[in-house]
Amino acid sequence: MLYQRWQRIARGCPDRTALIDLGTDRRWTFAELAATAPAESPAAATASIRFPQGNTAEFIIAVLQAWRDHATVCPLDSAEQTLPIKQPPRNIVHLKTTSATTGAARLVAFTAEALAADADNIVQTMGLRSDWPNLGVISLAHSYGFSNLVLPLLLHGIPLVLADSPLPEAIRRAAALVEHATLPAVPALWRAWCDGGAIPRNVRLAISAGAPLPLSLEQEVFTETGIKIHNFYGATECGGIAFDRSSTPRLDATCVGASMENVRLSINGDGCLEVRSQAVGQTYWPDAAPNLGSGCYRTADLAEIVNGHVFLRGRASDQINVAGRKVSPEAIERALLKHPQVGDCLVFGAPSSEAGRGEMVVACVVPKSGASQGPGAEALKQFVLADLPAWQVPREWRFVESLAPNERGKLSRAEWRARLGFTPS
């Protein structure tokens, strides 16, 4: 189904540029890309599961050849080892690895119809266009990159320019090859490009996903370039969930936009968001779990839906239990980020030594760059008391130079808890 759809795309625009790889300085038309995985392959499939890796044209070609050979695709980062995986059922064509921010990584199994549905939803919701090629800087192996870069190229004919790195000069070179561009990235990259004055002015659609997009960054980019960064919220298990379609910066950082086209959202009895669509994965593989299946993914994200827009209130698993009362770390982080000398912060719970208290609140704080001196713990305590009750104010403070996200653009509370020597709650 996927390979046949690709063939129709390639036949429809054979002479148009499909793919440019700046790392090798090569380019392919749709006809030339189709020739890398011809239907009449002289070689029989040698593996029932294929593991495309890297951020080069070879990744795209490996996917096409796997589709042709009816092999299951399991993308991996370049540094990852090939996984020993039990062969899934024949209707499973794709395995995604979860981001593992809250536990051990798992595989999510997808049918061809689910992959195509996610790409259709993304193209329809975001308005991706063939005359606005995608600039590829995010990982092709991750769910975000595969659904926003690989599938739009192969199933919708939207050209892809692969940059040889995410550095400012590389993104300038990539953008210079096209008249208009779509640029999906993560907040850390948008921050680096903004600070380096490297955001291309010919970007017509700017997208951010993988981690919360700070309002200050969204506003700064809009003020300096006129480019609106659109927040995109999704999950490995179900693809795109919500998208911020507005033309001006958001006013509430917890708002992640309205539901994607063809996606139905609801709040369950635990206050968590549930996602229903044809793009939802079949199951975790090889071990199923009750939160995924039958076209529904039950997230761990606490949320509210107001006038069709989704507002995230934290993760159920991240909630901190302080003497029997629960608080979302995101609420404390929002209060801290209002301080003019706080550049970034991360809050988590750790066991308290006080009897009956359960957990204590720990705050990691990054002083804002350029501040004459960082704020002290006492000053921050008094500051957040204007927004928070006393029991939610952090008991422990750690001041760090940066809170570098992991390779997927996310901050892991579990990783920082371990790094700073706190035992899990």
3D architecture notes:
The chain has 11 helices and 24 strands. The strands form 6 sheets. Strands 9, 10, 11, 12, 13, 14, 15, 17, 18 and 19 form a 10-stranded mixed beta sheet that branches. A 4-stranded mixed beta sheet has the order 2-1-8-7, with helices on both faces. It has a 3-stranded antiparallel beta sheet with strand order 5-6-16. The longest helix has 15 residues. The chain has 2 domains: 314 residues, ANL, N-terminal domain (Rossmann fold, 3-Layer(aba) Sandwich), CATH 3.40.50.12780; 101 residues, GMP Synthetase, Chain A, domain 3. The chain starts with a helix and ends in a 6-residue tail after the last helix. A hairpin with a 3-residue loop joins strand 11 and strand 12. 26% of the residues lie in helices and 28% in strands. With 425 residues, the protein is α/β, with parallel strands linked by helices. The model has no long low-confidence stretch (mean pLDDT 91).
Summarize the structure.
The chain is an alpha/beta fold and 425 residues long. It has helices at 2-12, 30-35, 57-68, 112-126, 143-156, 168-175, 187-195, 215-225, 329-337, 377-384, 413-419; strands at 17-21, 26-29, 49-50, 72-73, 92-97, 107-111, 134-136, 160-162, 181-185, 203-208, 229-235, 239-243, 255-259, 264-267, 272-276, 283-285, 292-293, 296-306, 309-315, 320-322, 325-327, 342-351, 359-367, 396-399.
